[in-house]
Amino acid sequence: MSDDILEPILSTHQLSVRTREGRFLLRDVGLEIPRRMVTGIIGPSGAGKSTLLKCLNRLIDLSGTLEVSGKVLFEGEDTRAKSVDPDELRRRIGIVFQQPVVFPGSVAQNVLFAATRLGTANRRNRDELLEESLRQAGLWNEVKDRLKEMASTLSVGQQQRLAIARTLAGKPDIILMDEPTSSLDPRSTESIEQTIVELKKTRTIVLVTHHLEQARRLCDWVACLCQKEGAGELMEADRCNVVFCSPVREETMEYLGMKC
């Protein structure tokens, strides 16, 4: 990685994930995530991109079948330290999945679902938080007169922005996004991308994407994972233009379709 990287808000050190049978899904990943930038995670299917993402806020723990070693540091603190509350960690490092997650209930209830339970929403700030989160997700103007309607009545693209609004209502420092536009039409994809550009002014974004042009458009930094001996490994990480225009590793060049 380039010497002029800003101090990272999040970093991994010799991070590995393996099954109980000993098969590695990720091996010795060392990655630094710069603050208030979009870091793209790219690479072929099966390289461990989603697994890496779930390690960053300990969502991987909920699998119950995978063993994690190495360290993830958030603001310099080991996220697996006994003093760290996993729920609070997941509030500060929120995640948006490939398929929009919509709970039974109204639009408003969906946005405030996690925030109410985590204590960032109360009677005094509820309405303000609801509007602020929907505006930041680029959805307020479309749903401000539909807040009491069932969230399931929204289009798929709107549901994905609703999921982003729900994450934002928790007041996260970092938002992890796992292919958030892969199931959306071009118009909805453009809306999500515009939201990402706005969000990075105040938050750090980590974006897993298979769309290389999307990575070029949105990302400041790019990390490329590839499989080696069946396990995902970090090939290289650097500024977006460096990885796309002059990658160092043969595996990255092959993934990007370059001649080695």
Any chance you could write out the topology, listing elements then pairs?
Blueprint: E1 8-19, E2 24-34, E3 38-42, H1 49-56, E4 66-74, E5 77-78, H2 86-92, E6 93-96, H3 107-118, H4 126-136, H5 140-143, H6 156-169, E7 174-178, H7 186-199, E8 204-208, H8 212-218, E9 221-228, E10 231-239, H9 240-245, H10 250-256
Parallel strand pairs: 3-8, 3-9, 6-7, 7-8
Antiparallel strand pairs: 1-2, 1-4, 4-5, 9-10
Helix pairs in contact: 3-6, 4-6
Described by strand count, sense and barrel closure, the largest sheet is: 6 strands, mixed
Which stretches of 5+ consecutive residues score pLDDT under 50? none
Mean pLDDT: 92
**3D shape:** globular
- The fraction of residues assigned to DSSP E strands is 25-35%
Helix content: 25-40%
Spell the H/E element sequence.
Answer: EEEHEEHEHHHHEHEHEEHH
Secondary structure class reads alpha/beta
Total strands: 10
The helix tally amounts to 10
Spatial strand sequence of the major β-sheet: 6-7-8-3-9-10
C-alpha Rg (nearest Å): 18 Å
First-to-last CA distance: 20 Å
